[in-house]
Amino acid sequence: MGRRRSIMSDQLKEEIATELGFYDTVKREGWGGIKSRDAGNMVKRAIEMAERQLTNK
């Protein structure tokens, strides 16, 4: 199966990873080095941001 194309921009992913405190791991090991829990928290945060943006419109 092919790799999926990311919906989130690299800038947004880096911003969220920094906010959640695991961007140092990303810099050292790449995105594959983060924990599943961190990836889930990142998705959850991105959804919260999107919902807030929709609410403000």
From TrEMBL:
The keyword DNA-binding applies. InterPro entries: SASP_alpha/beta-type, SASP_alpha/beta-type_CS, SASP_sf_alpha/beta. The keyword DNA-binding applies. It holds the Pfam family SASP. PROSITE patterns: SASP_1 (PS00304). Transmembrane segments: none annotated. Keywords: DNA-binding. Belongs to the alpha/beta-type SASP family. This is Small, acid-soluble spore protein, alpha/beta type. It comes from Jeotgalibacillus marinus.
